[in-house]
Amino acid sequence: MAPRKFDSEIHITPDDKWMFRGMEIDKEEILKYFRANLHGDSKGVYIENTFGELSENGYLRIDGFPCHVLHVTKQDNSLMFETDDGNSYEFGEFEVYETKDGGLLGRRAKEEKIYYRFTWNAAKDLSMFLEETDAGVELKLGDTEMEIPKFTGETEVAIPRDI
């Protein structure tokens, strides 16, 4: 059975607050559940809820960042990105971009519309592996050197009109 699709009435504000009908959602266990179940499709970004054989996709409006990178650690010859969706992602399955204003944002490689803001601690953790060059910012990890790509897209996501 196809999931029921609807407007969840949840809005992520420019300062990353989760709002429902004008009230802030501040219960950390609820936010962790929402973040862990965020997915994107051609229409937008939704929270997937599954109840036995039934499922629903509640779409949300995003004007900020729904998720955050909390810490970055070196593990073997790679980097691990610990996030507030309850997961740790290895570099490769998690992509890092430089923003227009020189900041950082991240994205799971398989989720094109869900972006992560780096906390100050995470940015500091990652800075140990970054070097500014004439061409831009490079990541240096062991024998690996790569330019951090510039992000030129938009992080805002609207509610789909056709749900």
Structure description:
With 163 residues, the protein is mainly beta. The chain contains two helices and 15 strands. It has helices spanning 28-36, 120-127; strands at 4-12, 18-20, 23-24, 38-40, 45-51, 54-62, 67-75, 78-83, 88-90, 94-98, 104-108, 115-118, 130-132, 137-141, 144-147. Strands 3-2-1-6-5-4 form a six-stranded mixed β-sheet. The two termini are 17 Å apart. The mean pLDDT is 95.
**Cα separation of the termini:** 17 Å
Order of helices and strands: EEEHEEEEEEEEEHEEE
Q: Largest sheet, order of strands side by side? A: 3-2-1-6-5-4
Fraction of residues in β-strands: over 45%
Shape: elongated
Low-confidence stretches: none
Q: What is the count of DSSP helices, taking H or I runs of 4+ residues?
A: 2
Structural class designation: mainly beta
| Quaternary organisation | single chain
Rg calc: 17 Å
Tell me how many strands there are. Answer: 15
The pLDDT mean sits at: 95
What is the makeup of the main sheet? 6 strands, mixed
What share of residues is helical? 10-25%
